[in-house]
Write a structure and sequence with these properties.
The chain is an alpha+beta fold and about 210 residues long. It is built from five helices and eleven strands. It has a single domain (about 1-205), classed as Alpha-Beta Complex (Nucleoside Triphosphate Pyrophosphohydrolase). About 30% of the residues are buried. It is about 25% helix and about 40% strand.
Amino acid sequence: MIQTYSPNMKSLSFEDKKIVHQKGLWHKVFTGILFNPNTNKIFLQTIFPKDSYNFERPDFVDFSVGGHVEDNESILQTAIRETKEELGLNISAQQLAFLGIRICKANPSPSYIIREFQYFFAITTEHTLQTLTLNPLDNEVKSLVEVNLSDFIALILQQTNGIFARERLIQSKKIVSISLTPEHIIPDYFTDKSIAEKLLSLSAMNAL
């Protein structure tokens, strides 16, 4: 069950996750950007097709980890749970840096409506794409993509049409070189300037 809210974040009732998206009810989610400050690399994910999606979703890259805040969880508890489930990482509060809240309104289909308060966090790590221990049986994350933070910011700001990245499928340890272009990115990430602002704030934090 998920806590729902009014548009000004006043607590309402608990509802089933499917009902939340069918009716377009406001709720909270965690979004984490796994970041290695030593290499200035972030990790993105691609996902397997979800049964819960009743619309066609292209094979976009997305931020490292995320999920709904369930029952009476705190954002911190959701962050720890989702990072373990999706990336196999045990993290602590000390690894999290709050980047701000994104107000997300989207209508992928008439019966799948997104109304989310997205709590963005950076998750610091010393892992590289090679050293991450991933769950080959995970049925949600398909691959992880490692990319330079500055390059990804330039792509989001449409300062370049393509950047170098490396991809590793969850079910394999093989790493391949790929090129990320605007077609690989969720379109909202170009139009919603708050995404670039959060990435720029992460870059500034790393420069201190």
